[in-house]
Structures are given as C-alpha cells and as structure tokens.
C-alpha cells in the first residue's frame, strides 16, 4: 500500500503565494456552534485519511472538549475535538483501556487522565506553530487531563510538528506489525512542567511581595515592604507560606492558616453536612432532623405557603452543595502518616501520593461506617425568618438541642492569600491545593472566605460553595474543599447485583432510599432493559450512584422545550437520550460531576441527559425520591410556545406519555456542556417587587446565561413569585394575562431553583450600609439593589389613623384574590352589597371572576368614577366602542347595578368584634352626595406607589420627582441602585416623558435591565469602570429602545374572551392620527353579538399590523393572535387584498388555515432575522447590492415613501437575484427543520416520500 504524507502542502504548491505573513495567533477558546462552518472550511483531504469520514457537527456534539484558535483578524485558524475514548470503530468505548495496554506500552494512562483527539484541523499557513499553543490551551481548561492521544491509521506519515509535540507510544514486541495503528501521546508536564512548590524562606520576601502587590497594594500599604520576612522570622505555628517556582523564578504564593474561627462559621453557614468543620467526637450531639442523611442537592430559595406554616413550621434555604458528609468514630484515625522530607522547605506530593491515598482509603472506610448525611431543607414563613427547624423530640435520657453541638477539634485550615502571575492564573492551582493539604496533613478541609463582590478565580473550580443560614446575612462567601476530592482515584462502573448490599449500606440513612434501591434492582436484574445503573467509587469505596432510563419521549420534550438552543438534535442519534431517575453523590466529590457525566456517556452510549424536576419534588413532604446533586452542572431549558392545531382534525404526531404526568421543569446536559465550567457570581443582588418587570429581571439573570451562576439573587415580595403557590384556577383568571406569566409557565420554568424568595415589604433603604429592612423580617444586605415595585391599587384612606382589617381591600396579585375569595366564602355575615370602584380592564376581569365564583350579580354594584379630561368611557377597552357597549350590556344582563360618574369621597364605619368595618360609603357627583351600604369594597380606581416603599425611597435620599428618577442605564442617583417599571421616570434632561416605562412591555424592560447588570458585574470583575467604557449609545446619552408589543387578555362578564395587542409606546390619539394621515386602515370581521366573534385588525400607513382586538364567546388561540402583531399584510397571505375582495369572512377561521402555522411557530422570528441579514448584506459585485438601491431610492424621495418607479426597479432587480435564491433556501431549510412540528407543508423530503413508490413508474420516466 502506498504511504500518504500528511504534512505541509505548501512545499508542493507551485502557484503564486502571498508574501504577507499570516496574522498572529492571539488566543484559544471553547468551540461554539457558530464556529462550525469556519472549522469545516479547514478540512483537507488529509484530514479524512487520519480521522475517517468525519462529520464536524456530530463530532462537536459528542465530544468532551472542543477548542478553536483565532488570529488578530478574528479568523479561526485551527480546531480540535477530544473525547474520552479512541476513534477506532473496532474498539468498544467502555473497554479501550484493555485494548491500549494489550497492544501498546503506555505509562499511567487511565480513563480519568486521558482523552483522544477525534478531530484536528488547521490552516496550512500555521502548520509550524499552532499545535503547541492549542495543546496548552486544552491543558489550561482541564485540570485533571494529563495525556492527550491521537490514533494514526497504518502507513500514514505525520509531519514533524506532531513528532515535536507528541511522543509515539511503542507497540508491544509481539504486536509490532505495520498494519497496526500508531498512537501518539503528549503529556501535560511536557507542555507545562509541574511547578516546584516549596515553603517560603526569608530571602523570598521581595518576590512574594511583588506578586501580591500586583494583585492588591493594600498589604504593602498597611504592613510595609517586609511583612513576609517578618512572618518567617516570627512564626506563630499556625500560618504557613508556600511558593511556586518555574525556571527558578517565583510564579505564585499561598498563605494558609489553621487558626480559623469555626464557631463563627457554624453560626452563619450550613456546615452540618461537613460536621461543623470539626473532627468527629463521641460527645457530639446532633438533632434527629440532622441525622437523617439525604444524598440530595437543592438550590437556594425561600418558599412557604401561608397556610402551611403551622404544619411545617420552618423554612428553607436550599443549596446545591449540601447533601451528605461523613463522621469519623475516632480522632486517632484522623492522622495520616506523611513522609518526612529531608529538606523542610520543600513539599513533595508526587512520590507520596499512592501511599497517602491508600492510608486515606482505610481512614475513609472507617468514616463510612458511621456516616450521617444531612438534608438541609428549610421553609421560611412569611412573618419571620428566624424559626425553629426542629420540633420537640424526646429521646430516652438524652437531650437533643435544636442546633448541633460539636466537641471535636478543628478539622480545617483557611486559605488567606493566593496570588499568581497572570500567565499562571489558569495553571496549576490544583497543585497548590494539594501542597496546602500536605502542609497540614492532619486536617481535611480547606476553606476560603471571600467578599460577596469578589472576582471569580479558577481556583474555585476545586471548591464547593456553602450557603449561609436562612436567618443570617454574613458579608463573606464560604468555599470548601476536602482532601479526598483531590487525592485518590474516582471511577465509574456498571452496577451489578453484587453491589446492592454495599449500596444499601451506603443509602441506609437516606430518606426514601427505597425508591433508589427498587430502581437499582430494575437496572441490574434486567427485567427492564431500558434502565441502567452506574456506581461511583473513590479508591474502590462507593461514593454515589446514578440510575438512568432510556428517554422514549424525545419528541414530546422537543416540542415543549427549547432543546435546539443547546444541542443540534439532527446530529445526535435518536437512541442517545437518557432520563436521570436518581443521582446520588457525596457533596465533597461534586466538583467531579462533569467527569462522571462524561464517563457515564462513554459506558452507556448516551449523549444527552434529561432530568425532570416536578413541583412535588421541591418539598420534602411530597417528593418521592431524593433530589439529584447533578443539577449544578445541568442547564435549565426554557419552555416553548406550542402551536395549537385546529384545522381539519390535524393533531400532533408525537407520542404522548404512557401515563399522565404533572408539569415539570426540564434540565439538560451533555458531556460537552458539563465540561464547560461556569463561574459563580456571589454579588448580592436584591430585587424588590415581583412585578412582571422584576420577575423577568430575575429569570433573565438566573437563567439567561448558562455558564454564569448568580448565587445570591433574592426577590422580596409580600406574596413571593406570581403563580408559585397558586392552585386556584379562578384566581388565576381574575387578573389579565400580559403575554407570558401564567401558572403553566411557572410550573415549567425552574426560577425558584436559583432565586431566594423573601416574603415581606421593604420599609427602609440604608444606602450607606447597603441594606434594606423588610417588615417583620430584618435586614438584608445588597451589592446591587433593583427596585421594580411598580404601581399598585391602594386602599382609600380618608382618615390617616384608620386601618381596615377585612372589608376594604386592594387587590393587585393572584394571592390577593385568593384571600378575597376565601373571605367572601367564609364570611360570618351575608355579603349582599359588594362594591367595585373603578373603570378599567382589571375591574371587569375581576367582576367576571366573582360571577364565576358564584356571587349573585344583584349583590354587586359597579361604580364608575368621573372621567378625566379628554377621555371617554370606551377607553377601558382601548377606545373600542363595539366591545365596550357589549360588555356594559352583559353586566346589565347579570343584574349588576351600574352607577356612572360618581366619586368615592368617604365611608362610614362600625365597631365589630373584628375591628372597625365599613358600614357604608359616600359618593359624590355634580355637587350631590349619596350614601350606599357596603359589605365589601374592592378598589380599582387608580394605581399609585405604595406608601411604605415611597417613604423608604424618600428617606434614603433617592431622587424622586413624582416617580423614581433613573438615567439612561436605568440607574438611580446611587450607583448601586437600579430601578425599572412603572415606578420610574427618566431624568428631565432626556426630555423623554413619552418614553416612560409604563408605555412599554415590562418583561422586555426587566430582561434588558438584567443584561445591564450582568455587563456591569463582568466589567467590574475585569477591573474596568463601566462608566469609562466607550459606547456609541453613551456618547449621545440616548435611552434604550423597546419594541415588544403590549398584550392584555382576559375573560369579561358573560364569558367573553377579550384580547388586545398594540404597539408599545405612548399612543397617538385617533383624531390626530387620522388628521395627519398616519392612522392606517381598519379591517373588521363579525361583531360582538355574532356567533363568529369580533375581530379587528388595524394596519398602519406601512401596512404593518399595529393593533389587534379579539372578542368572542368561544375560546381562540391567544398566542397565535399575538404572533400576528408586527407582520406585514403581504406576509399574512395578502390580507389586505383578500379582505377587499370579500374573500375573508371570519379572521378567526382565516388564521386557523394551514398556511399560517409557520407564522405561529416560535422559531419563525429566527427565519425573519436571517432573511433580514440576507437583505442587508452586500454582494461581491459592485452596484448589485439591494441595500444600496434602497438607500438611493430613499434619498431621492427625501426619506419619505419610495416612489413607485424606484419601487418597481428594486422589485425587478430582486426577482431572480441571489437575494431571492438565498431567501428561498432559508425558507426551505426552515420548513425542513420544523417539519415534525409543521406537517402541513410539503418540503422536499416529504415530496420524495410521496413519490418514493413512483420512481420507477413509466408515468414519471418517459425517456
């Protein structure tokens, strides 16, 4: 066979080459989906010779790590994908180690420390010098990766660059044959030699001080230039200083100290799973609640139902790091023998590692015998944050306190200072921690305390974050790591029946572990071939277990969640999906979760792992199995807006679940995604107010960026998250729907997982000390305060000292309506006069809800306050007289009394056993006054700012000018306090009264604010001042532009379904718009009384849909109708022309026709964005660009409507051009991609399927 030379093709190229040198390579980063087209262009014929018939997209999705390099011009110059098994088809992935050692003679290669190159491509201009930097970049981001191997097919000769950077592994003597593959290997320590770490001596003072001074000059300012020398000269026996060297030059330094105030940490942090950072002692007293070990993971949030306080009695702060920990029986076994070093200034942790791990394995086994794994699940009640978490428990002759008491010695040391040179920051931090543990061989934990606004450092990837206690607000964040997490070998193997006894012992104290054991039996006995189990071991000791099942509902999940945002489904085999049933792991090993996922993928062949988090799993009382610890590395997936098929019995084609399941939040991960380590941001961000704006802000900040986790995000609201505790369909319908938030959406999105919920009202803002005071709760400190309270309906107060208890209510939330309905239902006295005071859509929506609740219409009186100047009665329904008239008639048909134009001016009270109650109200109109008896008053008159938050804002010195004043970055006059929503207004220097937030979509505003905050924090972590960052928008002090429409949907009296969608911004009065010829055209089908319903569409002067009004007794597709907004009438199948020709009788049925389904698809906007980019692009041929033609036409028309002649010219040039071809291809690709969800369109693939049987027919093959 002919040998193939894989080298630099330039030496064979005889053509003319550019003499300009290639741009310099400036860095490497993780490969992204957007890089794949550029990577694919680097593939050469020689690439296929080495790696076979590869597909870049498939390899990228199934790899563990992928990386690209780019040059100064931003061009991708190389790419590599590595995986944890060789790319040899004949080698079984789960058994590649035996294959390797049988044929070759590698050294120390194992599943844990080695990976194989599955794809390597590069630009030929960089052949000589790209590979070394690429390998170094891989080792930088993978601290446990020591060897990278590449398999070369037989008779392939590599270029010198591979020989220089890699070593060929020799074959065993009996296998030395040219038909065998060649394997090349590179070692981490060949690219980056292991740092020499030793103890600091007095002569190192200048080097150490310079390294620390580069990080912060504070120590040098406070202690002078010789503080290191003084520490060495005057040792205290507790502090140790170690230094790293490379080429005899100091590169890093670490100060560690075993003098640590553990008692303070116990008081402020959830350290029960870690035995209080003390060594186990026989006299330790733990409450029974703490002695029930759950290997579970929770995420920080506060949650409590008001009617569950008495039954549960306490509260919650749940954290991803908490789960299980071991206790030792004897302190003597805690000591590890360490090899005595000849040079006391040197620390050698390489040669002693095997013996240390063996001794620690024996010690660890003794701890497992008496392990006590603790579940930290607390519920915070509404009225107090300081509650007892333990009920009174009586045991024989033993008093168990409410809090654990530890008597053992301190079992941790603290890392005081860690500094490295810039080039070394991403390297060798693990070696430093290992050296630190060797400095204190008798201690097991290393702790780091950092201020909440600290910059994330790669060192923290080896640590677990410990949450603070629910009633504590400590100014520092605590991170821990355990000796066992760094020493020893972690392995994963398939569960076997023989493992059950050991596993049962491991799970003996985990509540509800019987479900885990039952599923383990299913997986091992093989009665259920779709269930698998895998055991995690540390030095042959069980530390965890996972049980997975084949996910056979992939299409069901795909249609309900945005899976495509994270993985390319078309590049993953259909049988490569699995559902996690149980994932139990000791928390000290949680830093190895990414590796565990990659091993499970290798052993099982699954690439995508789902976990369904059901609502009942969030409570210890209702869940049926332990929660998994792996959610920290999994990505929460947003739910999708689904198409509703209502045409000719068209139904979904996906297979529905075999059994009915409740709504769930979905988490997803793959080996590639789990290996992409995320950063934790500890900045304390406090959001005040659960308005649409505030909730959208919290969701975007918590879930918007997958690899940045905000661990200290708190939402303060009297009722918590909307719909969080709402189980009443009626109360859900008594407040209008505004486009996103509803009970179903809340069940499918895990916002509560990352957001702390504090039930209460803010009454004080202390800007100097940076904390807010919550009524009846205490103080909560912040780094950033976000005010999104919004305007609310308030109780009328005619006497300042009056506080009504029951019968005068302001209702702003679903929880408020829940309470009101219960008051009406369980009232001791008959409520025969219920008064609604107001004239808006909220009032009529609530009125219908009360009628559905069973209240007789004759008991209700509706009072319309006097109209303001230049207003009309139909403004309650957005100036639609047709809808307003029918609603008023419907109210009359329900025997509801309507009083028009009267103002509420006072009320009369009576003393009852429950306090002062309303007896009657006084109303006034045109100088006359009347008194009306009142049993229950509901105010919908006008929204204003709440008095408590108003006083807090004013007393804190924030600028308030009728509303809270903000700048263009939504920031108040305090740089740490931001605000958004209806409570705000822009500073007067912007002259932007018409751009106030009350005129725009609150959810879009909240999401924008979250992006601003994230940008501020990222700039701070990079050492940049956000105010000094140049920006085109900042140069002109312009405010942000918001574009999403305003949506209102509700049910009004008589069961009418009402929907109104309009353009955001301050509207132009109809008379003025008509006068200036900018109103557009109105298209209407049906009427309010007709059986087909009333549908009104207004097109603006550009024939774009500007407003939509739907009014019908029958249900209609609200999401579909909202999707019509902003579309051109030609996109709606030439709507305007068809309507003029009387081809459309009913808009409801018209938009249910199959042609419109693509418009309602949630990915349709992606197609529009892609087409817009195509139209705005320029061609390579000068003068043939469509955008230039449009600009010239607008200039000739003086930026008014384009002249008809120019329009015809542009249209004629577009027809048949590359633009039209590209748009048609985009459309076909879109329909092809979505053909499972849009089965009504005939795509090329479906056309081929239809004609598959007719290919050989003579009717289709004439010639």
From TrEMBL:
<feature type="domain" description="FAD/NAD(P)-binding">
    <location>
        <begin position="684"/>
        <end position="984"/>
    </location>
</feature>
<feature type="domain" description="Cilia- and flagella-associated protein 61 N-terminal">
    <location>
        <begin position="29"/>
        <end position="280"/>
    </location>
</feature>
<protein>
    <submittedName>
        <fullName>Cilia- and flagella-associated protein 61-like</fullName>
    </submittedName>
</protein>
<feature type="domain" description="CFAP61 dimerisation">
    <location>
        <begin position="1042"/>
        <end position="1159"/>
    </location>
</feature>
<dbReference type="Pfam" id="PF07992">
    <property type="entry name" value="Pyr_redox_2"/>
</dbReference>
<dbReference type="InterPro" id="IPR023753">
    <property type="entry name" value="FAD/NAD-binding_dom"/>
</dbReference>
<dbReference type="GO" id="GO:0016491">
    <property type="term" value="F:oxidoreductase activity"/>
</dbReference>
<dbReference type="Pfam" id="PF16092">
    <property type="entry name" value="CFAP61_N"/>
</dbReference>
<dbReference type="Pfam" id="PF23150">
    <property type="entry name" value="CFAP61_dimer"/>
</dbReference>
<dbReference type="InterPro" id="IPR036188">
    <property type="entry name" value="FAD/NAD-bd_sf"/>
</dbReference>
<dbReference type="InterPro" id="IPR038884">
    <property type="entry name" value="CFAP61"/>
</dbReference>
<dbReference type="InterPro" id="IPR056299">
    <property type="entry name" value="CFAP61_dimer"/>
</dbReference>
<dbReference type="InterPro" id="IPR032151">
    <property type="entry name" value="CFAP61_N"/>
</dbReference>
